[in-house]
């Protein structure tokens, strides 16, 4: 937004100086900058709280997030074992599960050499069990 502000201020300067051609060019650049800012804000918003959680639930959201993750991190395979009904996950936990998954997978991509991730969400009696297992082909302990 700061860049947009500076761009518009620059355009106002050009208008005051009577430089119409450069003013129009500056406005066109500002429009592009504003569109990029809108797109980035949408991505951030979806990343923080995808509407899909409220519309479809946590189970489809986990599947969607894993597909999106694999598009970015093609060298990491994800196996999902979601053995729970949507109704079994309390609404107040859905966002917590999503954010834990999101942060965990981000950290795995940044800090591990994982080649495979297994994600499990299940119910055991009255408890939810959410597990992430990381496997890497080249992890060996030094002798």
Helical content, roughly? 55-70%
Q: Helical region count?
A: 5
Spatially, the strands of the biggest sheet line up as 1-2-3
Q: Compute the gyration radius: what is it?
A: 23 Å
Major sheet description = 3 strands, mixed
**What class would the helix/strand composition place it in?**
alpha+beta
Q: Show unreliable segments.
A: none
- The end-to-end distance, rounded to whole angstroms, is 53 Å
The whole-number mean of residue pLDDT values reads: 89
Characterize the overall form. Answer: elongated
The amount of beta strand, in percent, is 15-25%
What is the element string, with H for helices and E for strands? HHHHEHEE
The total strand number stands at 3
Notes on the structure:
59% of the residues lie in helices and 17% in strands. By secondary structure, the chain is an alpha+beta fold. The N and C termini lie far apart (53 Å). It contains five helices and three strands, in the order H-H-H-H-E-H-E-E. The model has no long low-confidence stretch (mean pLDDT 89). Strand 1, helix 5 (91-111) and strand 2 (116-124) form a beta-alpha-beta unit. It has a three-stranded mixed beta sheet, with helices on one face.
